[in-house]
Amino acid sequence: MRIGNMEVRPGEKKSGFLKVTGCGYELPMTVICGGEGKTVLITAGIHNAEYVGIQAAIELGNELQPEEVKGTVIIIPLVNVSGFLRRTMSMVYEDNKNLNREFPGRANGTVADQICYTITKELFSAADYYIDLHSGDGYEKLHTYAYYVGKSDPQVRETSFQMARRVSAGCLVESQSLAGGAYNYASSIGIPSILLERGGRGMWSKAEVDMDKKDVRRILAYLKILDAGDAEDKPVPKPLLFRETVYENAPVAGCWYPFFEPGEFFSKGDILGEIRDYFGIVIHVCRAKTNGMILYQVSSLAIIKDGPMVAYGVLLQ
Question: Rounded CA gap, 74 and 86, in Å?
Fold first, then answer.
């Protein structure tokens, strides 16, 4: 297999850098080639302050060996390198763009566009399956869950759903969009894909990283990339499935006071949180539009106008 300037033969494992078209930016990359078989792409750090996935990808890159892999595993442990070095949260430092809004990218665009274009051209073209590791952003707290795309080709949807079922989370979210995110775009071109969410608030722990690695190994076992004897491949029983989600952005800036925690249930009309001004006066009340469960929300006191506030899965009435 050749990716960029790196050639990896069966039985080999190599680490190096994938050059981004145009800007000279480089993505760290480890390729584990066990021989003939399918190829799985694993990325982390599309949002650079989402540390659980980044550390899990680094450790998986060190731990996986060619002799245990059937096929090939490509790991990009950190996509937004410049943002990571400058702690810019979700945004690419050079152009202040969110990578998960720019796929498939453009060769003649800004740095973020070129990163997305390179991933599309060099990595999605080689991948049979895709796992994207995320967390809550530096100012977000979330409940562990996984996304898969519901509006893709039926076979892609079913395989993605079964991949998501191997995530040790109490709930799954079926996205109704094929636009924007890396996993959405990959699904739209026929690659079964999921996005795993665990951790947040600019923190990581060994326990969270170990859970991410266990989930990835379980998915790889389901896909026959690893032996089931090395990683259990059975699905997590009966996760709560959300086919509709509500994403609420803040209509004004101020101080944010959430009333529920991620993973908690609420009823239509409940107050999910308030925005108050700098004198403590309520200037916005966020009420639930339906019965649901909090997936993630802003955990910082500061909240930005038109920025994220709270997201929840909709429970059937």
Answer: 26
pLDDT at 231: 54
Tell me the HSE value of 184 on the side-chain side, using a 13 A CA sphere.
17
One-letter amino acid for residue 260 of the chain: F
Residue that is written with structure tokens 């009340």 in the block: 285
- The DSSP secondary-structure symbol of 51 reads H
Q: What is the pTM of this model?
A: 0.95
Residue 154 burial (C-beta neighbours within 10 Å; 0-12, 13-18, 19+): exposed
Structure token digits, residue 198: 């665990």
CB-based burial label for 59 (10 Å; 0-12, 13-18, 19+): middle
pLDDT along the chain (317 residues), means of 10: 93 96 93 95 97 98 96 98 93 95 95 97 98 96 96 95 94 87 95 98 97 97 85 76 96 98 97 98 98 98 97 88
What is the residue whose two structure tokens read 């989370």?
Answer: 169
pLDDT of residue 92: 96
- In DSSP notation, 97-143 reads -BGGGSTT--TTS-HHHHHHHHIIIIIITT-SEEEEEE---TTEEE-
Contact (Cβ atoms closer than 8 angstroms) between residue 166 and residue 222: yes
